[in-house]
Amino acid sequence: RRTITMGLTVSTVAFLAYGLASQGWMIPVVVVFGALAGVAIPTIQGLVAGAVLPSEQGKIHAAFTSLTSLTAIFSPLIFTAGLFSFFTSDAAPIMLPGAPFFLGSALFGISLVVLARLFRRIPASPTAKA
């Protein structure tokens, strides 16, 4: 649970930092920091997989793969063609090229709040390490 919470917190902060970055040198710093978030997804997958019967493992992994595929399709449309294009165009009320990262940070923040509430309702496994 701590690993997942830490990973989502790092993602929230890293995406906010990407959006606020005003100099090129800031990006590699955020990338190194943001790499710590990579522990969250495998930990979430392991936690969910451990909560289902062995006969249901294939369905769980298929669901994760399907969600990953859907985000790979729709994220560029929403974040690049949508938000970035709008907030860097003449039609934008303000010039805000970091808008996609601010939305990403907000989505990670929302998932962090939902996760915290979920963790409060579900008792921790005595053998859980994550």
UniProtKB/TrEMBL annotation:
Give UniProt keywords alphabetically: Membrane, Transmembrane, Transmembrane helix
For whether the record's keyword set contains Transmembrane helix, the answer is yes
**UniProt-annotated location(s):** Membrane
Q: Which residues cross the membrane?
A: 31-53, 60-87, 99-119
GO CC, one annotated term: membrane
Topology in membrane: Multi-pass membrane protein
Single Gene Ontology MF annotation = transmembrane transporter activity
Query: SUPFAM superfamilies of this UniProt entry?
Result: MFS general substrate transporter
What main location does UniProt list? membrane
Q: Which InterPro entries match?
A: MFS_trans_sf
Alphabetical list of PANTHER family matching this protein = FI18259P1-RELATED (PTHR23507:SF1), ZGC:174356 (PTHR23507)
What protein does this entry describe? Major facilitator superfamily (MFS) profile domain-containing protein
Annotated organism of origin: marine metagenome
